Amino acid sequence: MNSAAIAPLLSTMQPPPPPLLRCLETSLTAAAQMLVSLSTDGAHVWRLASQDPASFPSHAFQVDRAAVQQLCYAVDSTWISHTFAVTFLVLCYTRGVIDDNLQISSPSLIIPPETSLIARLLRLARDIFDAVCEATRLHPARGFCAIVRDATALVLAPDESEVDELALQAVLDLVNEGGFEWPMVEWE
Q: Which domain of life does the UniProt lineage start with (predicted)?
Protein backbone atom coordinates (compact mmCIF):
# COMPACT_ATOMS: atom_id res chain seq x y z
CA MET A 1 0.00 0.00 0.00
CA ASN A 2 1.44 3.32 -1.05
CA SER A 3 -0.03 5.33 1.79
CA ALA A 4 2.41 8.24 1.75
CA ALA A 5 1.48 9.23 -1.80
CA ILE A 6 -2.22 9.41 -1.01
CA ALA A 7 -1.99 11.04 2.43
CA PRO A 8 -3.54 14.30 1.10
CA LEU A 9 -6.71 12.38 0.21
CA LEU A 10 -7.22 11.28 3.79
CA SER A 11 -6.65 14.68 5.33
CA THR A 12 -9.36 16.55 3.40
CA MET A 13 -12.89 16.02 2.19
CA GLN A 14 -11.96 17.12 -1.34
CA PRO A 15 -12.34 14.83 -4.37
CA PRO A 16 -9.07 13.10 -5.29
CA PRO A 17 -6.88 14.90 -7.83
CA PRO A 18 -6.47 12.80 -11.03
CA PRO A 19 -2.76 11.99 -10.49
CA LEU A 20 -3.58 10.31 -7.17
CA LEU A 21 -6.40 8.15 -8.50
CA ARG A 22 -4.05 5.42 -9.72
CA CYS A 23 -2.23 5.32 -6.37
CA LEU A 24 -5.55 5.25 -4.54
CA GLU A 25 -6.88 2.44 -6.72
CA THR A 26 -3.71 0.37 -6.18
CA SER A 27 -3.79 0.97 -2.42
CA LEU A 28 -7.47 0.02 -2.18
CA THR A 29 -6.77 -3.19 -4.07
CA ALA A 30 -3.77 -3.98 -1.83
CA ALA A 31 -5.80 -3.40 1.35
CA ALA A 32 -8.58 -5.66 0.08
CA GLN A 33 -6.07 -8.33 -1.00
CA MET A 34 -4.42 -8.35 2.43
CA LEU A 35 -7.75 -9.07 4.10
CA VAL A 36 -9.14 -11.49 1.52
CA SER A 37 -5.89 -13.50 1.62
CA LEU A 38 -6.89 -14.68 5.11
CA SER A 39 -10.41 -15.66 4.05
CA THR A 40 -11.72 -18.87 2.55
CA ASP A 41 -11.57 -16.99 -0.77
CA GLY A 42 -7.79 -16.51 -0.45
CA ALA A 43 -7.07 -18.28 -3.74
CA HIS A 44 -9.12 -15.56 -5.44
CA VAL A 45 -6.90 -12.73 -4.13
CA TRP A 46 -4.83 -12.04 -7.27
CA ARG A 47 -7.94 -11.49 -9.39
CA LEU A 48 -9.23 -8.67 -7.18
CA ALA A 49 -9.39 -5.14 -8.56
CA SER A 50 -10.80 -2.48 -6.26
CA GLN A 51 -12.62 -0.61 -9.01
CA ASP A 52 -14.23 -3.77 -10.40
CA PRO A 53 -16.82 -5.02 -7.89
CA ALA A 54 -17.40 -8.11 -10.05
CA SER A 55 -13.82 -9.24 -9.29
CA PHE A 56 -14.84 -9.83 -5.65
CA PRO A 57 -16.86 -12.81 -4.44
CA SER A 58 -20.46 -11.75 -3.81
CA HIS A 59 -20.97 -13.71 -0.58
CA ALA A 60 -19.95 -12.83 2.98
CA PHE A 61 -16.26 -13.48 3.64
CA GLN A 62 -15.33 -16.20 6.13
CA VAL A 63 -12.05 -16.40 8.04
CA ASP A 64 -9.77 -19.19 6.82
CA ARG A 65 -8.85 -20.59 10.24
CA ALA A 66 -5.92 -22.59 8.81
CA ALA A 67 -4.42 -19.48 7.15
CA VAL A 68 -4.84 -17.44 10.32
CA GLN A 69 -3.28 -20.27 12.35
CA GLN A 70 -0.23 -20.22 10.05
CA LEU A 71 0.17 -16.50 10.67
CA CYS A 72 -0.50 -16.79 14.36
CA TYR A 73 3.12 -16.10 15.28
CA ALA A 74 4.01 -13.77 12.43
CA VAL A 75 6.17 -10.75 13.18
CA ASP A 76 4.64 -7.48 14.34
CA SER A 77 4.89 -5.86 10.90
CA THR A 78 2.37 -8.36 9.50
CA TRP A 79 -0.22 -7.26 12.05
CA ILE A 80 0.70 -3.59 11.68
CA SER A 81 0.08 -3.93 7.93
CA HIS A 82 -3.26 -5.67 8.43
CA THR A 83 -4.29 -3.06 11.01
CA PHE A 84 -3.30 -0.30 8.61
CA ALA A 85 -5.30 -1.93 5.79
CA VAL A 86 -8.43 -1.82 7.97
CA THR A 87 -7.77 1.74 9.15
CA PHE A 88 -7.06 2.85 5.57
CA LEU A 89 -10.36 1.44 4.29
CA VAL A 90 -12.27 3.03 7.18
CA LEU A 91 -10.61 6.42 6.63
CA CYS A 92 -11.27 6.31 2.88
CA TYR A 93 -14.93 5.51 3.54
CA THR A 94 -15.53 7.93 6.41
CA ARG A 95 -13.79 10.74 4.50
CA GLY A 96 -16.00 10.09 1.47
CA VAL A 97 -13.15 9.05 -0.81
CA ILE A 98 -14.84 5.70 -1.56
CA ASP A 99 -18.38 4.39 -1.47
CA ASP A 100 -19.57 1.18 0.15
CA ASN A 101 -18.26 -0.92 -2.76
CA LEU A 102 -14.76 0.65 -2.73
CA GLN A 103 -15.58 2.78 -5.75
CA ILE A 104 -13.79 6.13 -5.73
CA SER A 105 -16.59 8.61 -5.12
CA SER A 106 -17.85 11.86 -3.75
CA PRO A 107 -18.55 12.29 -0.02
CA SER A 108 -21.65 10.64 1.45
CA LEU A 109 -21.33 8.96 4.83
CA ILE A 110 -24.05 6.47 5.62
CA ILE A 111 -23.97 3.05 7.21
CA PRO A 112 -23.24 0.73 4.28
CA PRO A 113 -25.58 -2.16 3.46
CA GLU A 114 -24.56 -5.44 5.10
CA THR A 115 -23.90 -6.97 1.68
CA SER A 116 -21.65 -4.13 0.46
CA LEU A 117 -17.98 -4.82 -0.16
CA ILE A 118 -16.75 -2.40 2.54
CA ALA A 119 -19.00 -4.01 5.17
CA ARG A 120 -17.96 -7.54 4.17
CA LEU A 121 -14.23 -6.67 4.17
CA LEU A 122 -14.43 -4.89 7.52
CA ARG A 123 -16.34 -7.77 9.14
CA LEU A 124 -13.68 -10.15 7.76
CA ALA A 125 -10.90 -7.99 9.22
CA ARG A 126 -12.61 -7.85 12.62
CA ASP A 127 -13.13 -11.63 12.56
CA ILE A 128 -9.48 -12.25 11.60
CA PHE A 129 -8.20 -10.20 14.52
CA ASP A 130 -10.74 -11.75 16.90
CA ALA A 131 -9.67 -15.25 15.80
CA VAL A 132 -5.99 -14.49 16.40
CA CYS A 133 -6.54 -12.70 19.69
CA GLU A 134 -8.79 -15.46 21.03
CA ALA A 135 -6.22 -18.14 20.11
CA THR A 136 -3.44 -16.89 22.36
CA ARG A 137 -2.84 -14.33 25.07
CA LEU A 138 0.66 -13.41 23.89
CA HIS A 139 0.36 -12.29 20.31
CA PRO A 140 1.63 -9.22 18.46
CA ALA A 141 -1.84 -8.64 16.96
CA ARG A 142 -3.39 -8.27 20.41
CA GLY A 143 -2.25 -4.66 20.66
CA PHE A 144 -4.04 -3.85 17.41
CA CYS A 145 -7.32 -5.64 18.16
CA ALA A 146 -8.88 -2.59 19.82
CA ILE A 147 -7.85 -0.39 16.89
CA VAL A 148 -9.43 -2.77 14.39
CA ARG A 149 -12.62 -3.08 16.46
CA ASP A 150 -12.89 0.69 16.84
CA ALA A 151 -12.12 1.35 13.17
CA THR A 152 -14.68 -1.15 11.94
CA ALA A 153 -17.27 0.22 14.37
CA LEU A 154 -16.90 3.66 12.76
CA VAL A 155 -18.37 2.25 9.56
CA LEU A 156 -20.45 -0.76 10.62
CA ALA A 157 -22.17 0.67 13.70
CA PRO A 158 -21.21 4.30 14.28
CA ASP A 159 -24.14 4.96 16.65
CA GLU A 160 -23.76 1.81 18.73
CA SER A 161 -20.23 2.08 20.08
CA GLU A 162 -17.81 4.48 21.60
CA VAL A 163 -14.75 4.69 19.39
CA ASP A 164 -11.32 5.31 20.82
CA GLU A 165 -10.16 7.91 18.32
CA LEU A 166 -6.78 8.00 20.05
CA ALA A 167 -6.25 4.36 19.04
CA LEU A 168 -6.96 5.21 15.40
CA GLN A 169 -4.66 8.21 15.59
CA ALA A 170 -1.94 5.93 17.01
CA VAL A 171 -1.92 3.92 13.78
CA LEU A 172 -1.65 7.07 11.70
CA ASP A 173 1.16 8.32 13.94
CA LEU A 174 2.94 5.00 13.47
CA VAL A 175 2.66 5.36 9.70
CA ASN A 176 4.21 8.82 9.83
CA GLU A 177 6.85 7.95 12.45
CA GLY A 178 10.39 8.49 11.25
CA GLY A 179 11.66 5.08 12.36
CA PHE A 180 8.95 3.14 10.56
CA GLU A 181 9.53 2.86 6.82
CA TRP A 182 6.55 2.18 4.59
CA PRO A 183 7.62 1.30 1.04
CA MET A 184 7.08 3.97 -1.59
CA VAL A 185 6.16 3.11 -5.15
CA GLU A 186 7.17 5.46 -7.93
CA TRP A 187 4.60 5.83 -10.71
CA GLU A 188 5.45 6.68 -14.28
A: Eukaryota
What residue ranges do the domains of the chain occupy? Answer: 7-176
pLDDT in tens, 26-72: 999 999 999 999 999 999 899 999 999 999 999 999 999 998 888 87
Residue partners of 59: CB distance under 8 A and separation at least 6: none
Q: If we measure between CA atoms, which residue out of 77, 63, 6, 66 comes closest to residue 35? A: 63
Helices marked H in 15-103:
18-36, 65-70, 76-94
What's 63's DSSP letter? Answer: B
* Chain centre distance of CA 187: 22
Give the DSSP H or E segment for 176: helix 165-176
Residue 93: closest CA among 9, 3, 5:
9
